[in-house]
Amino acid sequence: MFITRYERQPLGGFFTFILPMVLFGILAAVPLGLNIFGGDVDLLADVPGRALQWLSIFAASLLYLWHFSHGFKVLAVALVISGLTLLGFILNAPAGSVLLGWGALLILGGALANDTEGSLLQVPSYQAIFPRLVSLPLMLVLILLFSLLFGLLITASFQAGMVMTATDLGTGELIPEITGVTRIAVFSVFGVFLGVVSALIRYQRALIGSVRYAVLVAARYVLPFITVIGLMLFFAMLDPYEYTLADRAAAAEVMAIILLTSIMLVYVDGSLPKPPLWLRLTAFLTLITIGLLLLPGLNLALAGEQTWAQSFSYLLTALAGLFLLFGKASDLFSRADTWMPLLAPLCVFYFLIISVSPIALALLS
């Protein structure tokens, strides 16, 4: 799990990897930059705006997926991902669900295009999905930090220029007052920066693999403490005079998601043998704790006091807990040497559900 076999494949050189990544960064940054800060196009209404929105999503997907040796497969997968994500925006699905679905599509698409041999008309295995599931958040955090640094440098540069020219503009008025051509230039430079940073981060596969390995090792020893904290939280929120049902449901759902994430990091990709007895007992206690934490949300949903988006979020969390229960039960009826053998295929099915959840949520609401 340090570096997978597929991650050892060379990404390419300057003309086959870095230069395309720079181009993708520009195509991802300029349309969104013009809309957010300029108002030149409306990405939420007109057809040209939708086309630019699709282009931005397509290019941003390629920043994560691009691999020269799998070029045609990657382009085909990116087309599907950007199309489904744009459909979620067109149907006015909640932005959070669209971004979550986009992330699930990126993980599935990356595993299918780059980590799975054969045709695209198949479902990738969980062994190919899991490394990307851990690595993608790490990469996004690094890109976000570098982007914030770039924004601070640009803001400081403009502020210094205004001081030198004695221009009286506040920081909040800085970007909207830039002319159209200057806006394009600024966000083109940001696109170049985004492409270069994304390429450099993807080149550091050994570093990302080592961080991923450290996270997986730490999860084994952190899980018992988080489980105890979850139990304490559940009993501490039983006082109806101190916490409303909505407060208990929100806090309990967040804690349940943390526990689910922790136990999946302990489970890894489903190919490891059964862990020691203490860890299996801890996982069983964690499963019970997750069930208790989901009770306030169930009461709130049955009372009809949740919006569609809130109910759907709870449904995804409860479904993950249910799949974990099925996986734990498979230990009792299977003679396989691996731990919770049914959980790995259920996790793949779960990712497929998340990938289409924005469209389903928009149609239901």
Provide structural commentary.
It is a single chain. By secondary structure, the chain is mainly α. The protein is built from 12 helices and no strands. It has helices spanning 14-37, 47-65, 71-90, 95-114, 126-164, 180-203, 205-236, 245-267, 277-293, 295-302, 308-333, 343-364. It is globular.
* SSE arrangement, N to C: HHHHHHHHHHHH
State the secondary-structure class.
mainly alpha
3D shape = globular
Q: If you compute it from the alpha carbons, what radius of gyration comes out, rounded to the nearest whole angstrom?
A: 23 Å
Relative helix content: over 70%
Give a nutshell description of this structure:
The protein has 365 residues and is mainly α. Helices cover 75% and strands 0% of the residues.
